[in-house]
Specification:
With 122 residues, the chain is mostly helical. It has one domain. It is 70% helix and 0% strand. The protein is elongated.
């Protein structure tokens, strides 16, 4: 019963399948997502297969990653989004957003996307 409840929460919050679909649309692969979450790619595969559930910290990171990819999809066409994630960004100290995502620095990437959304040069 506890496992079923955990799965219900995951489906509502940070559903790995949904997040990976959003990420894939922006050119972020399973390996990048797993680095971002601080887990092995096999762990993410187990989440996708329903063999295990993400921990609470992983769910929070999945939610942030989902928000990043949804915002990027809303603001940028897929090809432009993939380029944006890979290109050096002055606001991020010359690093590409993808590098920060791989290190789990999701809040910094969300901030820059928020700036773009509000029309602030970044």
């Amino acid at each position: 019963m506890e496992s079923a409840m955990g799965r219900m929460q995951v489906a509502e919050r940070g559903d790995p399948k949904q997040v990976l679909r959003q990420c894939a649309a922006m050119g972020l692969d399973l390996k990048t997502v797993s680095f971002c979450l601080g887990v092995h790619p096999k762990t993410v595969e187990r989440w996708l297969d329903g063999r295990s559930d993400p921990s609470e910290p992983a769910v929070r990171s999945l939610e942030k990653l989902d928000a990043i990819c949804r915002t990027a999809r809303r603001l940028l066409k897929p090809a432009a989004g993939r380029t944006w994630f890979a290109a050096p960004n002055k606001t991020l100290g010359g690093e590409p957003p993808l590098a920060l995502i791989r290190r789990g620095e999701l809040d910094r990437v969300r901030t820059v996307l928020g700036m773009l959304e509000w029309g602030i040069y970044s």
